[in-house]
Amino acid sequence: MKCALFVSLVVAAITHAQSPNPDIHYHLGPDSLPEDGVPKGEIRGPFTLPSAVFPGTQHTYWVYVPAQYDKSIPASLMIFNDGQAFMAPEGDARAQNVMDNLIYRREIPVMIAVFINPGRRPDQPEPTPRDWGDRNTNRPTEYNSLDDRYPRVIVDELLPVLYKEYNISKDPERHGIGGASSGAIAAFTVAWERPNDFRKVLSIVGSFTNIRGGHAYADIVRKSEKKPIRIFLQDGRNDNRGQGRDGGKYDETRDWFFQNVRLMKALTDKGYEVNYAWGMNRHGQKMGGAILPEMMRWLWRDHPISVDPLDMVERSFQEPAKKPR
User: What confidence tens digit (pLDDT) does each residue in 73-111 have?
Assistant: First the structure.
């Protein structure tokens, strides 16, 4: 029996290895692509943010300013960790297109967005869509540590700079942050540590695993007082599953999918506003990018609206703000 079981497992492993890449089934929809007639926002930058939290490092970031931004009206704020990946014109997310389309149709509020890269020393290379910086930047320390250092970068170093340049609401309900993989757990850590500053979290294949103790979050959530955080989790059954590249002994603390489901259950049991989508994807942004528009709609679904049938402004598309003469 043991021999037959072993053979069955080997056959199953070979079959799985030879199966088509499940990511081929996820495609960007029209909400993620440029649409004719939709006003396009401007991406400004790159800018450099020196860090006192991580001495000797700096963060490169870009700012998305929607065509509808009006300096006299406070805008909402969305921050994307691993910014280079979320704003890549040919990437899997193309968040700037998503915001252009959804803002124009009043499906999310007018918002400033920031695409921020992990910190690095000036002599280290800038992360790229091909190399996110795990081996040559400060990304592992910043993103995977369960402490308040990266939240301090965002809240104490980045926000003051943004407030000086843009009219951004200081209401934490109007502040969101998201990321993929380690950038996702970093986004959750920002909201967890600083809920008076950020209350919306977007997580794609979040690394809630034992890289630096991230698997503890489910237990931490259960033991802690509930916080005013709303979160959308996305992961796939073919994410990293805790067996290592050599197919070694299973370690559930390194199973991305298991730990995402575990965190979802902890948040749900605790009464959090949590939504989730489990697909077939591997570790990456393929499914998360495809459903990014829906994730954004859900996170921002309660932005103010008018139900007055005679309010023709509300019933029209969100046109560009008039430029001061």
Answer: 999 999 999 999 999 999 999 999 999 999 999 999 999
DSSP code of 266?
H
> 83, 61 in Cβ contact below 8 A?
yes
3 state SS of 319: coil
Q: In the 8-state DSSP scheme, what is residue 128?
A: -
Q: Which residues pair with 192 in a beta bridge?
A: none
SS3 category, 206: coil
Architecture (CATH level 2) of domain 29-299? 3-Layer(aba) Sandwich (3.40)
Complete DSSP assignment for 57-79: EEEEEEEEE-TT--TTSPBEEEE
Q: Locate the domains of the chain by residue range.
A: 29-299
pTM of this structure: 0.93
Distance CA 262, CA 248 (A): 22
- Indicate if the alpha-carbon torsion angle 71, 300, 302, 316 is positive or negative: positive
